[in-house]
User: Fold this.
Amino acid sequence: MKLITKLECLLVGWKPEILQNCGEVSYATLKKYVAAITILTIIWGTIGWCFADNYLAIQSWYGKVITSLFFILVVICIERYIILSHGNLTTLRIFRTFLAFLMATLGSTIFDQIVFKNDINVQMTEVRTEQINAEIPKRTIQADAEIKEERHLIDSIKVVNEELQKAIDKQPMITIYETTTIRRQVGTSAEGKPIFGTEVIVGKHSVPNPKIEQKNNNETYQKQHEDRVKELQDYKLNIAKEVREEYEKKPSGFLEELSTLYSLLSKNLIVMLFYVFLFLFLMSLELLVITGKVKDNCEYDMLLDFQLEQRHRELKALGNK
Assistant:
């Protein structure tokens, strides 16, 4: 048996030893399975590469290759699961059709997002313009609310400072009384021991009204709130520019582009027809293996069925003994 045939058997999961006892129909069936799997691996390898490049932000070529190999491995495992199945395939056929629908939807969506990338970018620009126009008033309202709150605090501080200034004008200096207790000897006892007494000395001096310091602190707070108001006013003037730059720098995600694609599909009949065509094409390719599996009955499958039936008889006979 040729090496290429052994590699083909490895790909689809067949045993070369069993295939050697089969005729040309089995070899032809093997070639068909290999062709179908090859087509699917090429398509899904490309889809994996594009998906890694556009949506996983993988820049290295080996990272994209690994992603493509992962997609290819999944496809090969799915197709081998079908090829190696035996018996009643009705349930398997229904499941594979459903899976083909999902895979074709995913594949055609990714391909369409690449094919219509320029149209999607134009559509996304319109969508983001609408988002920008909706976001600017929201942030403006928020800034106005903060400015209003800051100005209310400034007015409150001004009222307090006016009251403090009136009190300061009436009494710029206040008198503080201090008492000092001094212990002194005032005499001696009959035994000659000293007798001590205490003397309280009251002193007073003038100091600046403490309300002056309180007023100065309030003015510091007032200056901070005024600076905050100026900062918010500057921010308010630059809101439109800031929001626009923020949305322009924001990278587009898979779901965002997907929503834009389906918005484009609903507006453009040509795009819709191309999507349907690509979807049906991919779904047809996905069903190649299961279709051949259901309709073809090669010697390889017959040998497996024969071996299974023979084994059943042997086990049954063993059980009877």
Remarks:
- Residues 53 and 59 are 7 Å apart (CA to CA).
- The chain has a mean pLDDT of 79.
- DSSP finds twelve helices and two strands in the chain.
